[in-house]
Amino acid sequence: MVRSLEGKHPMYYEAILQLRDVKQEVHDYVMDEISQAKIPVTETKDLKNGVDIYLADSNFTNGLGKRLQKRFGGKVINTSSLFGRKDGKNIYRVTVLFRGVPVKKGDKVSYCDEPYIVKAMAKDILIQHEKSGKKVHINYQDVRQLKLA
Prior knowledge:
By secondary structure, the protein is α+β, with helices and mostly antiparallel strands. The protein has helices at about 25-35, 60-70, and strands at about 15-20, 40-45, 50-55, 75-85, 90-100, 110, 115-120, 125-130, 135-140, 145-149. It is built from two helices and ten strands; from the N terminus they run E-H-E-E-H-E-E-E-E-E-E-E. The protein is elongated.
């Protein structure tokens, strides 16, 4: 689906959406969102643990990262780098990394050999003990401590 913006080079892009460790459902959702918004994709690179999608709209890409986290959980990291200057203004390229996680809201998990339920997934993962009701926040880099029950 390579389509260029009018007046722009065919390989023009403003943002890279990096999908890592995601299920096919996430990939399909992303491609559907891009298609519906009619955002030009200038390139896709398949990698061992995901895909990089080069998009012509940085605002759309940032918003898509937020929607992915809200819908699927996971970790989103936004970065930008100076690409150049035009008419005295800095031009930035944006990279949005979405890293999937093996659990989702409502899943029953084991944490420290105790039963918990995943209650929320935003900046971190909120789990609640099934019996005591105690809530614990887990960072995404510690997600391997959770085991699906």
